[in-house]
Specification:
78 residues; alpha+beta; GMP Synthetase, Chain A, domain 3; 45% helix
Length: 78
């Protein structure tokens, strides 16, 4: 499932000012979870207005996870 984390990490790096601070990792807690961390100043860019950007990232993740016949959630960590 590392491919899913790499997909989200790549998308997040494209939208932030500090792409070196972006990292995504896979963890198991009540299912498969991708934890995305970005620099504090880029947090608003990843979340987006009314959460639209993070919802788009979650949609991308759901589609990619469906190709792998699995379910996955996205969490943004500080």
């Amino acid at each position: 499932m590392k491919e899913l984390a790499e997909c989200i990490e790549c998308a997040a790096k494209a939208m932030v000012d500090n792409p070196d601070a972006v990292s995504a990792r896979v963890v198991e807690k009540n299912g498969l979870v991708i934890e995305l961390s970005v620099a504090n100043e880029d947090l608003g860019k990843v979340i987006g207005k009314n959460g639209r950007t993070v919802e788009a990232l979650r949609t991308i993740l759901s589609a990619a996870a469906a190709n792998h016949q699995t379910a996955c959630r996205l969490e943004i960590v500080e």
